[in-house]
Amino acid sequence: MSTATDTKRAERNAPAGERVADWADGRLGIYTLAKANMRKIFPDHWSFMLGEICLYSFIIIILTGVYLTLFFTPSMNEIVYHGPYVPLQGVRMSEAFASTMEISFEVRGGLLIRQIHHWAALIFIAAMMVHMMRVFFTGAFRKPREVNWLFGFLLLVLGMFTGFTGYSLPDDLLSGTGVRFTQGAILSVPIVGTYISMFLFGGEFPGHDFVGRFYSIHILLLPGIMLALLVGHLILVVYHKHTQYAGPGRTEKNVVGMPLLPVYMAKAGGFFFLVFGIITVVAAIATLNPIWSIGPYRVDQVSTGAQPDWYMGFAEGLIRVMPGWEINAWGHTLALGVFIPLLIFPLVLGAIAVYPFIESWVTGDKREHHILDRPRNAPTRTGFGVAWLTAYFIMLIGGGNDIVATHFNLSINAITWFVRIFFFAGPVLAFIITKRICLGLQRRDREKVLHGRESGIIKRLPHGEFIEVHEPLSQGDLFTLTSHEQYEPIEVGPTVDENGVERKVSLVKKTQAKLSQGFYGEGNQIPKPTAEEYKEITSGHGHH
Amino acid sequence: MSSQDIPEENLPAEQGAAHGAAGHGGTAVVQRVDEDPFHDPGLPAHKPRIQDIDERAAKRSERTVALLFTLSMAATVAFIACFVVFPVDKLVYIWPFGRVSALNFSLGWTLGAALFFIGAGAVHWARTLMSDVEVADDRHPIAASPEVKAKVLADLAAGNEESGFGRRKLVRNTMFGALALVPLTGVVLLRDLGPLPERKLRETLWDKGKQLINMNTHEPLRPEDITVGSLVFAMPEGLKHDDHDFQIQIGKAALMIVRIQPEDIKDKRELEWSHDGIVAFSKICTHVGCPISLYEQQTHHVLCPCHQSTFDLSDGARVIFGPAGHPLPQLRIGVNAEGNLEALGDFDEPVGASFWERG
């Protein structure tokens, strides 16, 4: 009884913060939530900060985007400009363009916020790609994180389209040209192309609707979906607990690092301000999309060197280098020259979405993986990743073929042919070279484990021979360099059983075995040193 | 999936099993050291930083962090001052950036500094003063235990039993039907997003007798206005810049006109449809609809700056390079009674990008 009154008195005397927390706990259960998460352990590595850049640039985009909506007029009504920017006075333009001019020249700080918004968008998508590279090359997409990989992939794709609808809003000559290209591409879709175009633009291009429609897609529909995916992505990161690199004391059953409170609150929270601060300074000194010098959109005008934002450069490349194939038959036209790029675009993107499922099928591995691979220890995966990136960057060159031609004094025709050939040849070469480099690095690790580190000390033996002294690795290094897993390739097994009866092996099974050989068969990974090999060498007999 | 039946021994051993249970100097590790030269030595001992052992160094870090936070405060004050002081239209020269808006430039640097120094302070605090002892936390399998799974399945079965979901198939199937159909209302509602294509993409404002109006001077074009080597853009008579549908109409009717020596015109029909070597082609690229603007007067090639499709205007606007799929449509022109250039009809094929119904 006395303890009950004591508790009551203690509650009354508790500090104000605690009393507020008690109030919230009684309604939201915050203590239980905090118990599980406040001291949550996160491992430390510079590459884990890439995802943070994505998150923070997304927050920056939302903050600055909300500000921009306060001044932007998403309307295609035509007006004559009478603002302070003299060169455009008297020019006809849409209200969307005019309000963007107003944000840039009349609203104090408006230009800065507009620039931060656009810069953050470019950085957001670049950061997502680099973050995905980290996840891909370290195998962080493996079970149980495949779904989170898909969330991330969707964020990348939606981010690209949010970016596209966003930079089309000012209705300037450059972005309008991009929208025109989109409309032309839509027209190439068999059967329904003209209908989609009419419905999207409210009639013929450009019409009076697309800015308003892109506006609601850009500020509500796509960011809403992205926000939901982002929350899901983060919840899963917390739920799965972060992956970690191999090292002493780190296993599949633990996570080693520092607690959220206080270290990561300070580091990650501080990093938000670092990212925001740097983007702000970049926005202040490097002007993007100067719509005042580009001018308002006119469907019959264009400027040279027209380029989309970088993340659309891949699609731009596909459309530029594709030969102009066109089939006319039975009163219909199939514009393959435009439609094929339109199909390749999602296929190339989709390849990275499905990769985790292909790899887990090839390995047949159903276990959870929390220790990250070093890229060298998964040569085939690393090779695929680099091949994909090679195709992507070659198409980026294709998308900027005019810029490359003018800057390097090259023939645009030659660049186009280079891209046509190397879109196919480049990834193959990249795959072979990457795989060889990975295997070479695996051999070096093996060397290091068995013979120690080269010390740079040359010793002369009594009989005159010179040798370099190798220092043995520390136990931690020995463990780290040998802790990776090596899969045995799957065998189809004998096709005839012991009684000579033919055993049916399905095509799926054969493909799986074939792929497994390609991933893990002989010559596709270097066997890591065994304890016996190590003991034989270190016991003194195995002199090198 | 067939991979289910891969024997366990083909999978590499779990890390823990191969190298002994990793712990922090647990007995299990010690036992296996002799057998496995690659065993996990466990978490390395914490290496203290200078701030951990020297209170003066810690004080120095404390002052640095406080200084960074103070700099941020100063930058915020400076931001407000710049906002008030600099007029929005003031330009200043700052090397190496050139002429920049004083307001934009100063706001950017001060806001950037105000944000950056908070981050720098927090990170420096975390790196030098907060504990950097690494701790290990256990992971638990994501998948539920068999008991939990059995309980969930039993609950589901109970729900199924109590609702009769599986038993009363008529109810279930009609519900699926209703749920499948109801989104159709949303699809139907989208119908009025735009009109049907009909013949909209096949027709332009050009018609028999419509004069060619110079885009720049807004005067009717006369043959003598067009000299060899020049490129002139024209629109149809009657179209005004302030027309409600100006953009839509010019997007189809935009015309480019050049004069080529008649003997240089290789295409027979092109020569027939020209007037005295003056030829008029659609300005809208047949690839994806950009306006074509780059003319090379010696070769009579025009290049679309968007995707580099190149057309030979002396040979029926044939595609000679790039992704366009067919030549630019030609407009048949002549001269009217006043001596002005006029169209002798609309284009005989749709202008711009190809589409399914183009034929």
Provide an overview of this structure.
The complex is a heterodimer of chains A (544) and B (359). Chain A is mainly α. Helices cover 62% and strands 7% of the residues of chain A. Chain A has 20 helices and 10 strands. In chain A, the strands form 5 sheets. In chain A, strands 1-5 form a two-stranded antiparallel sheet. In chain A, helix 7 (146-167) runs antiparallel to helix 14 and helix 13 (313-321) crosses helix 14. Chain A is globular, with a radius of gyration of 30 Å. With 359 residues, chain B is α+β, with helices and mostly antiparallel strands. Chain B folds into 4 domains: 14-45, no CATH class; 51-128; 147-181, no CATH class; 208-344, Rieske [2Fe-2S] iron-sulphur domain (Rieske Iron-sulfur Protein, 3-layer Sandwich). Helices cover 35% and strands 16% of the residues of chain B. Chain B has 10 helices and 14 strands. Chain B has a 7-stranded antiparallel beta sheet with strand order 12-7-6-5-4-14-13. In chain B, strands 8-9-10-11 form a 4-stranded antiparallel beta sheet, with no helix packed on it. A two-stranded antiparallel sheet of chain B has the order 1-2. In chain B, a hairpin with a 6-residue loop joins strand 9 (301-303) and strand 10. The chains are: A mainly alpha (544), B alpha+beta (359). Strand 5 (254-259) of chain A pairs antiparallel with strand 3 (135-138) of chain B, so a sheet runs across the interface. Chain B: Its main location: membrane.
